[in-house]
Amino acid sequence: MTPADTIPAEEGVAPARDPGPALLDRYLPIVGAAEVEDLRALAVPLEGSTVDMVNSTAVGGGVAEILARLLPLMRELGLVAQWRVMEADLPFFEVTKAFHNALHGAPFTAGPEAFEIFRDYNRRNLQKLPLDGRFVVIHDPQPAALVESRGDGDRRRWIWRCHIDLSRPDPAVWNFLEPYITRYEGAIFSSPEFARQLPIPQYLFYPSIDPLSDKNRELDEDFISGVLSGFGIDPHRRILTQISRFDRLKDPLGVVRAYRLVKRYYDCQLVLAGGGATDDPEGTQVLAEVCEEAAHDPDIHILELPAAAPLEVNALQRASTVVIQKSLREGFGLTVAEALWKKKPVVASAVGGIPLQIIHKHTGLLSHSVEGAAYQIRFLLSHPEIAQRLGEQGYEHVRENFLITGNLKRYLTLFVHLSR
Amino acid sequence: MITANVPFQFATASYVTRVENQKANTISELHKAMEQAPDTAIFYHTFQSLGRYHFLTEGFSNDFAQWVLEGLNQPELAERLAGIDVRDYTTIPDLRADLRLMLSDFVEKYPRKAEQVAFEPFYFLSDVEVTRPLPWEARTLAGFRAGLERLSHSSFYHHFIASRLRLHLHTNDFSHWFATALGLERLAQRAENIDIYTNTLDSARQDLIEIVDMEVGQ
User: Fold this and answer.
1) Distance CA B29, CA A46 (A)
2) For B62, phi and psi rounded to 5 degrees?
């Protein structure tokens, strides 16, 4: 029986909808029929609307990953969504890398020619990219100057989606970009903390995870056991895990120290798993420091994972007793949402976007130091019923706020709002 | 079974959060920023927190109380702020005035504590609401019950909680329809009495279904 069958026929209720296209239906068991029904109802007035999503790379990075999964869902709901990728090469990317670092607070040392290179590539792309969508969503600073083509009475709705933290930008770069940003109809940030004071509306869109991706989907117990066995991890003893690059800002040394404090009270193992260290000189150095700190403790498992090892990451998270994210600075820190999605109790630092995911004592525990992290881990190990409750509430929090279907809903809502 | 002349039109509601330009680091700043923040922001941090944290039954009666407790460790003020019952208000200016009064009392009584810097700032946010009619409606309690079961959390929240302010009444969409379209005043009151603070949205909906079932069974 479909839900619509429960409505008495004499009440003139619309007949049960034909089975929807397959892609959105795959989310039904996760988010429920009502949410999918909401998405379809929201999309009705947008049917046939054209959407241009513009970024600077087709592969690699979180933005490309989100767009690759988001656009098919939009199309299935009747929007004509296109993904446009800027054409650019090394000189432009050198400039935008410097911009990126400066917007994160590093000093900007490039000369004034950098600004001209930025403008020049944006203008060249304006000639090439057919930006005629009803909604034009520009992702991140690289293509931000494309808004120059927006004229008076333009029927297109221009939105800037900023995925980075703008709370402490280098003034030279921000002062250059701001006049472009204020030409948009709105800007979207991932956290209120990342936003700027601007004369245009600013919206809050959380980054999202896809529950159907290899990194987040359900796994067979046998597969998880196989992964643990392959890495020499004992599945019968407590496992504390941090998944992150070997980067000082992720504080892997602090994690080892917290583990040692916990180990005085509880028998446990530590898994530090990350990828990409071999290509990164600093990463290699940090990895060496972590190995030294571990001092051949057989219960510390330092795992260098290949860049694309989503199933292994998934298995390690699912096998964990407690997941740690002891970052010193963080963007949004979606590894936290990934762990919560697996109903894991999480101890994480209160930095960047983490407090949006970890509501202290409700969806996990926040800490501010090595000692604090160790204490919270001990608390969870000694109160498994609380750990379980935090994990379950964390799962609900992710289901409500950090899934790709929620991201889709926010875009649809914003598009309807901007159409009014 | 009573049939209403005016059907109950179920709607979906979805929200996009706006980041406002006000923020506060201290209770004193919160008091000032609360004066400047738009009505939609006051609504967001009081009424809408009930919808956002709908799976929790403890804490979070409003965001101001939560921040004062977690960010500043001022439990007495937090409890006073949390004690506000949004069902008592039909306008945001009234709600804002009472919240500001509590804050100004604290600032006067504890001027040093009022300048204590919180662990993290309070950012004023608001929601843009978009509603769309769902393709079903109800004219009887049986039809209503079936429709109620199909609603998403945000749609249930829209009808049951957010509607109180929209209607400028001490009621909600459901009770309003029970009373005005079906003439079922007692059912309307029983629905209105469901405690939105100690329930989750799911358990509030279940309570409503149970009282509708009792009404149908009588």
Assistant:
1) 41
2) -155, 160
Please give the biggest Cα pair distance in chain A: 75
Query: Which of B15, B19, B155 faces A413 most closely, judged by CB atoms?
Result: B15
Q: What is the pLDDT of residues B129-174, one digit of tens each?
A: 999 999 889 999 999 999 999 999 889 999 998 887 777 767 899 9
| Span B59-105, pLDDT tens digits | 667 899 989 998 899 999 999 998 888 878 888 899 999 999 999 99
Nearest CA in chain A to B133: A41
Choose the mutation target among B5, B21, B123, B132 for the interface with A, i.e. most A CBs under 10 Å: B132
CA–CA gap between residue B135 and residue B131 (Å, rounded):
13
Which residues sit opposite A80 in a β-bridge? Answer: A50
Report the first-to-last Cα separation within chain B, whole angstroms.
11
The proportion of chain A whose per-residue pLDDT surpasses 90, expressed as a percent, equals 76
Looking up tokens 């004062």 gives B68
Are residues A344 and A394 in contact, defined by beta-carbon separation less than 8 angstroms?
yes
Confidence of residue A281 (pLDDT cuts 50, 70, 90): low
In chain A, which among 164-203 make CB contacts under 8 A with chain B?
A: 189, 192-193, 195, 197, 201-203
Of A6, A32, A203, the CB nearest to B146: A6
Alpha-carbon distance of A207 to B52, in angstroms, equals 17
> Which tokens belong to A165?
């933290």
* Confidence at B53, pLDDT banded by 50, 70, 90: low
Distances (CA, A) of A353 to A150, A165, A190, A330, B194: 32, 9, 8, 7, 35
The residues near A227 (Cβ < 8 Å, ≥ 6 apart) are: A311, A312, A315, A316, A319
Q: Residue A33 and residue B21: Cβ atoms within 8 Å?
A: no
Count Cβ atoms below 10 Å from residue A138 Cβ, excluding itself.
28
Q: Which residue in A has a C-alpha nearest to residue B4's C-alpha?
A: A11
Q: Which is nearest to B153 in space by CA: A307, A308, A37?
A: A37
pLDDT value at residue A8 = 32
Single pTM value for the model? 0.87
Is the Cα dihedral B192, B197, B198, B199 positive or negative? positive
Chain B residues close to A181, C-beta within 8 Å: none
Residue owning tokens 């030409």: A183
Shortest alpha-carbon distance between residue A65 and chain B (Å): 22
Q: What is the 3-state secondary structure (H, E, C) of B192-211?
A: HCCCCCCCCHHHHHHHHHHH
Nearest to A3 among B59, B119, B150 (CB): B150
**For residue A384, what are its two tokens?**
């498994």
Which residues of A60-179 form beta strands (DSSP E)? 80-85, 135-139, 157-161
Report the distance separating Cα B148 and Cα B194, nearest Å.
15
- E-strand spans in B51-197? 122-138
Q: Is the pLDDT of residue A4 over 50?
A: no
Q: Look at the alpha carbons of A407, A182, B63, A415 in this order and tell me if their dihedral is positive or negative.
A: negative
ipTM exceeding cut-off 0.85 for this assembly:
yes
